[in-house]
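User: Predict the full complex structure for these chains.
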Amino acid sequence: MQILRKTNLKALEKAKKLGAKKVIDILKKKNLTGRGGAAFPTGKKWEFTLNAKSDTKYVICNANEGEPGTFKDRFIIKNNPETLIEGILIAAYVIKAKQAFIYLRGEYDNLRNLLQKTINKVVKKSGVDIKIISGAGAYVCGEETAIIQSIEGQRGHPQYKPPYPAVDGLFGKPTIINNIETLTNVPQAILFNDWDPNLRLMSLSGNIANPGIYELPVGYKLTDLIKKAKPKNKVKAIYFGCFGGCMPYSKIELTPDSICGKNCIIGSYTIIVVDEKQSILDTALSIAHFYCHESCGKCTPCREGTIRVCHLLEKIKSGKATKQDLEILEDLAMNIHETSLCGLGQTSTNHLLTALEFFRKEFEEKLR
Amino acid sequence: MKIILNGKNIKCKEGKTILDICKEHNIKIPTLCFIEGLKPEARCRLCLVELDNKLVTSCSTYPYEGCKIITDSKRIRKARSINAELLMAGHVKTLSVDEMENDLYKVIRDLGMTRIRFEPIIKYKQDLSESIIRDDNKCINCGKCIRVCGEIMGVHAISFQGRGHYEHVSPYNNHPLNNVACIKCGQCIAACPVGAIYEREHLFEVIQALKNKKKHVVVQTAPSVRVALGEEFGMPPGSLVTGKMVAALRKIGFDRIFDTDLGADMTIMEEASEFVKRLKKNGPFPMITTCCPAWIKFMEHFYHNLFPNMSSCKSPHEMLGILTKTYYAKKFGIKKKDIVVVSVMPCTAKKFESTRPEIDSDVDYVLTTRELSKLIRYSKVDFKKLKDEEFDNPLGISTGAGLMFGATGGVMEAALRTTYEFATGKTLKKVEFNEIRGIEGVKKGTIKIKGKTIRFAAVHGGSNIRKLLKEKDKYHFIEIMACPGGCIGGGGQPWPTTKEVIKKRMEAIYKADRNLPLRKSHENPAVKQIYAEFLGKPLSKKAKKILHTHFVKRSEF
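Assistant: Here is the predicted structure of the two-chain assembly.
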């Protein structure tokens, strides 16, 4: 697997020889994009922070992997932590940061020792201090502004953008925030000429015989992937994580453009397989409970709306709901999607909007 | 920068949010969590507008060159309505607040909404303290109270607890307000758009006392009540309604109506004498005023090193309370236990003050300005049509100095007028100290007394207090008021108390001071009489016993 290739600090050496601007040029040329889900070009992100004027700058590594069905970051930390730390060091070198943070998901506490050992081994005399900060189990703290709040010691509430963290981030200073997969790709992209920007880590789960991490190129055929996964029953739908929404199983290629229904996003290539024996309504209810639990409580639609979505879905499931309830549910889901403050709120009803688009029958047959 | 606002080409300056621009063009946009002067948080999601076909919150979004902004459309109305509906469903109706004062009701009325499709959920207990009651079932989590408490008052008594739907406002670890470092200033009450925080009302007890024929019910009104009460009855801010207020109180059935301004004059007599004494003994400086009970509690929680600096005077209404029960009772042959003293104050901390064991308060009940307006309505008095009446003797004569206690800087100005004459024996010709008037957070000035330069300062608003106390050793005399604007911006005043309203109330106070014949506390004939007949002279043994107090240390948390 490409992601497991070790660079043994040679990429850092090369980066120091090239200088900050050339490193950014390489990242841009090689077309490295963010692997957290938003796919923002990494070189551009770093350039903003490099150009921001400030004597102190920070690097944050986002290891708060909380998306249900996603476990690629854990895979990287377990199997290639040296390259990840090297990626952080390169980022720190490029923007001249003295302090970097790894915001580690609370549930990944068992990886903390391994990370700390690797830091002790790799960092040594580089002049950069890398601190591991443990999250407390909040999904929303994977949102970049919420991470900043959390590291500052505040409640993990997302903030509106602009200002973007690249200019006004941690403690008001310019800050680079990147996902683990992105930062691990950085040294590899700098060092290896045969580095392929199209390879992605895909997390497969659901009622299948072969769940796990697969490294496959963008544009890979979904049918081939499902063949590898060996589903136990006939596949009905595919969920792209909780926030990505769902789509009926069909012959498509896995690219951001081809799967984009109205509210379906491929994000971080998380694929949850739902087969014919499972009910979409149950899945929707369980995801709605997840978002209701994980909402930070800051903005109205997400705080008050997510619990109402749960209530309405429960009502539909119990068979007491009317057609009007379904209308309210749809209005509400659209409103949460359109008017929430952060990514969590905006995507929290994608699963419902897409389910209502493709599997409306399953909801309607439960109505009174 | 050129933008298109509702189809019109408009030029605007950079660095302004869409909300600011809409305000300039008289376009009304509903907001619930926005506080003038603080960074917007964009929590309530009601100020939505369309920016190039995307729904954005206008309070936190800056327009860009050539952008198209629409402030009213079907889509916007629908989004606003659903958010308002969600808030309204979480806001459980109870009877403690007027519907007219509820900003959420106004938003719903303006949106033309007719139904709430979600059921209310009741999940919290009320948090009861001596002066402030919080009801989380009414709370819509706009966060205004938290920001006012932390960023303006510098107290940080409350914050958000819990997550998601269970997020609620509370002191840390869900302690009740009584157990934490809350100064009871009531600014959270003034900030709350839905009345989820309100004062503990003494209205019922007062009505009971009024009905009891055996009781002699005495009422006193604070200086800042008379410039704000009119607003409750539809008069413009800054209307001086002293005469009408007295007439209304008499109609309601109070036996005597006294003026807290006299208590303020007494405070000045004691405080000025104390300052003159400190001048002779050369310290300890700075001397700090103690009229504001919220500030006293602030000091007791956070500034234990200031105990020697504090003046030992009671607050004006406590002084007048004890004078009513001693001097007045003796003079008119009324038994002390039959007298009920009611104070009408702009303040919720005074409710707490009247329960302090150190003071052993002689004030039985404290009403806020808002409660007084409720009492007037309850008694079916047509306030606007009342003819002016005068306060009762002997505790109803006051001066401009006493009246100025209502505004920030007023105590200092009144104290200086008297201190100067006490210390030098000469008449002060220029009685107005413009340097400590106005709405700035920290105001400073100097005066020469017997060749010595006395540096004085007046400060209001908790975070300003923290700033000033860092350099306190520069000053000899400091006046501190906890609420922004002083008592005229107090937590018990009519809603809304904005900066403009505070300015108008302040102007009214200074105007009234200019028009009064007596402008120095020691020239008040009633004060002279009380000292001659009862107390002897300022700081005499008797005066020290009944007009002074001490403070206690409280935890910082």
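Residues 260-281 of chain B form the longest helix (22 residues).
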